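Risk register update: the risk of archive-format incompatibility is retired. Evidence:
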Amino acid sequence: MKNIIFDIGNILLSFQPELYLEKHFSPPQMGDLMMIIFASDEWVELDMGTMMIQDAIDSLTLKHPHYHDEIISVLENWTQMLIPITENVEIAYELKKKGYHLYLLSNFHKEAIQTMYQQYDFFDIFEGGVISAEEKVVKPDEEIYTILLERYHLNPEESLFIDDSLANIKAGNRLGIQGIHLPYLANLKEELKKIGLL
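Archived output:
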């Protein structure tokens, strides 16, 4: 194994919108906003790179005028929900020190990923990455995995992919990439020890 590929959301950065919404809105509002924003076609289009944040705000406030101000507040500030998962970031540094090549493969909005790169210097240890909004394709579409493999000349049999979605792991498996399915807050160190990488 030479290459370790990391998802970002809930692997390197915690993304739990329910907790954020709970702090700022009443329970009925929270439930509505979860559906209106995070289960919307617009959210998918942000990941696809076919919409920017202002486009999503315009579209969603038009559809849901009774939540106009709340939608704007959430979408203008949603990157505050993204908090480093310290233990997994430390493991990434440990893997780098051991000589593994680190890469990113994530469904992520174009504007948000630039904010994260500027905010957190641990992204500097990654040699490259493929972000859905920049490629106009999202996991688990096999095309996004192929883009990563070809762009960085990676042998899939020498590559391990860590993601919180089983469907995303299975898509990588079909291309020969070994995977660790890591549900939110599962123990990454234990999983890596099981396969002899730590």
